[in-house]
Design goal:
Elements lengths: L8 H35 L6 E7 L2 E8 L2 H6 L19 E17 L7 E7 L2 E9 L9 E14 L12 E4 L8 E3 L5 E3 L5
Parallel strand pairs: 2-3
Antiparallel strand pairs: 1-2, 1-7, 3-6, 4-5, 4-6, 8-9
Length: 198
């Protein structure tokens, strides 16, 4: 390491000016790259693992679960479809379950930057307290805000995918509760049972 000695104040200013001339473009490029990267990360859709299922009649829905504040805020924003992995399974067999972390009254949800219509079900202990059908995408604020009476979870499914009514108790189970000998994963990380191919 070399120690620089300046004989007068002018030499110090010249050295600082040269340093700024060298670091300025690097700092500018770093700011531009950082801004672009941040924009990309913020507009990138989240793809959460399927950890729960909803069984409704003879249908089974694979559910991603959002639990952290970041996951709850992003939800299904920027996604092209509910099929997070891009593989088109049977239409309407996927959904997202939002764990709110406690019982909340007048729970607000909106469709800002969601690209497809959804049915939104507000649940308290797996019982539907409020149902919003065919909530439409919204790309400019202000967007409609849909409120549920009370909920500790919110379920979003493709519009018309399930005939769910207010007051109905839903059968939502974590995958770990299912019998292990009846479950397998195929190549695309899709869940299958021996009797059903999802």
């Amino acid at each position: 390491m070399q120690i620089l000695k300046f004989t007068n104040e002018k030499d110090l200013y010249v050295a600082v000016f040269k340093l700024i001339n060298r670091l300025g473009p690097v700092a500018g490029v770093s700011i531009i790259v950082g801004t672009v990267a941040l924009g990309y990360v913020q507009t990138r859709p989240q793809d959460l693992p399927v950890t729960h299922i909803l069984t409704k009649g003879d249908r089974t829905f694979k559910l991603e679960v959002a639990s952290t504040p970041e996951q709850l805020e992003k939800g299904l924003k920027f996604r092209a479809s509910l099929n997070g992995d891009g593989v088109p399974p049977t239409v309407g067999d996927r959904g997202m379950l939002f764990n709110l972390g406690g019982e909340i009254y007048n729970v607000p949800f909106w469709m800002y930057k969601v690209n497809f219509p959804l049915d939104i079900f507000y649940l308290k202990d797996n019982v539907v307290t409020t149902a919003i059908f065919n909530a439409q995408p919204c790309h400019k604020t202000p967007c409609p805000i849909y409120k549920g009476k009370v909920a500790n979870q919110v379920l979003e499914l493709a519009t018309g995918a399930a005939n769910i009514k207010v007051g109905e108790r839903l059968n939502i189970q974590p995958l770990s509760v299912l019998p292990k000998n009846n479950i397998s994963l195929d190549r695309g990380n899709s869940l299958r049972t021996k009797n059903n191919r999802w």
